[in-house]
Amino acid sequence: MSRLPVSLVTASCSLLLFTFGPIGQAHADSMSALIAQKSAQPNESARYTPSYSAVPSAKVSTRSTIQRAGTYRPNTATVQPVTISQSTTSSINTRNYGNQPLTTTTYRSPAVQYQAPAMLPTFLSGSYDNVDSKYLPLLSSAETQSSLAAREVVSMARKMTLDERAIIKGGCWDYLNAVFNRAGVTRDTIHKGTYGQGPYARSDDIEIGDWLYYINHGYNRVEHSGLFMGWVDESAKQALILSYAGENRREPARYRVYDLSNVYQIMRPSV
Fold first, then answer.
1. CATH number of the domain at 133-270, out of 3.40.50.300, 3.30.1330.40, 3.40.50.970, 3.90.1720.60?
2. DSSP 72-83
3. Which tens digits make up the pLDDT trace of 178-203?
């Protein structure tokens, strides 16, 4: 095989380079762009291969922890209304406790109601010779603190004794009988004994307005009867009694203190 001359070979190569030079350059530029594009994309193998050197990302919950208004329901057994004074109401009147309405207490001065003074019985200001003035309040209490029937009796007895100074024919029994009749009140026997043997009544068995039969220890221990008005000293059996001596003395009845240690009969006013 014959060889080509060197000059011819050289010329052929130059012609080839001249012919394919622009095409090869364009191909090289295209390959460079493709490589750069691939480098920019993530590695498919690296997408599924965990990286142990990287810090794991924090988990973020999207669930809201904010409660809606009005959904809170406190335990009413433990939440108690708060009571505050007037001085602190203005400063905390917009606060509440456990979504419970705040209980406020407003102080109000008690209403002063005018009351007309009670009319005192006119007999309290009187002067009498048949009752000691220190016992007049006891007579007044007897009329206000007794039963209706007893009140009628003691009130009538006071009028007959202090106002009328009535004289009744007979003795103590006759006078008290007249008092009951004028008052329109009957009487019931609730205790009955005898002068010498009793049984004798206890002090708590006796009430205002009772007609009593008792032993008069202040006057020869005779039998006597009188109208019970109240205790002066209950422990000593000392009581205020409406008593009438009567007979030929022609003296009005009087209120005196008697010893009621031996009361053997009690007759009580009734209607």
1. 3.90.1720.60
2. ----TTT----E
3. 999 999 999 999 999 999 999 999 99
